[in-house]
Design goal:
6 helices; 157 residues; three-stranded antiparallel β-sheet
């Protein structure tokens, strides 16, 4: 509910379309340029998203769903539902959120490069491979948590 409120209050005046999506797009741009691509990001004129441009070619758009916040919220909800000791839970939530955020950034960079080089593979890359990787990462983090640190599993065993 808090994230939905944040989205509703984001007017996009400073960080279009919202702060988190804007930050992810800017960091994607930095990473793409850092690995040798001439990249830029521009606000999309017709929708609340940011265009990713590589070597002058519009390859992708970063929308609110690309910022990993909803995935992190899902991850945190599961960890809290199976909480262990407070300190362990807090640090695992923090570290797991960083892993998901970083992995998501890398996912967007690799997806953008893939779409630049192989635009005919768009559907496979965007709808199958990369969601599988990001949700697979979250699943592995959950399984590690439940099998290693969760107090609820130990109490029920």
């Amino acid at each position: 509910m808090a994230y939905n409120l944040y989205l509703n209050l984001s007017d996009g005046s400073k960080n279009y379309p919202d702060f988190a999506t804007h930050l992810v797009a800017k960091q994607t741009n930095v990473l793409l340029n850092g690995i040798g691509y001439e990249a830029s990001v521009l606000p999309h004129p017709e929708e609340p998203s940011i265009k990713v441009i590589i070597e002058g070619k519009y390859v992708a758009r970063v929308i609110e769903g690309c910022n990993a916040i909803s995935i992190i919220i899902l991850f945190l909800s599961f960890i809290v539902a199976f909480a262990g000791q407070f300190k362990q839970t807090f640090f695992y939530c923090f570290a797991g959120s960083i892993v998901i955020y970083a992995f998501n950034l890398i996912r967007i960079v690799v997806l953008s490069i893939g779409l630049y080089h192989y635009p005919w593979r768009k559907e496979m890359l965007h709808t199958v491979i990369f969601p599988l990787l990001i949700y697979g990462t979250v699943f592995l983090l959950w399984m590690f948590w439940v099998n290693r640190f969760s107090k609820n599993i130990e109490q029920n065993a």
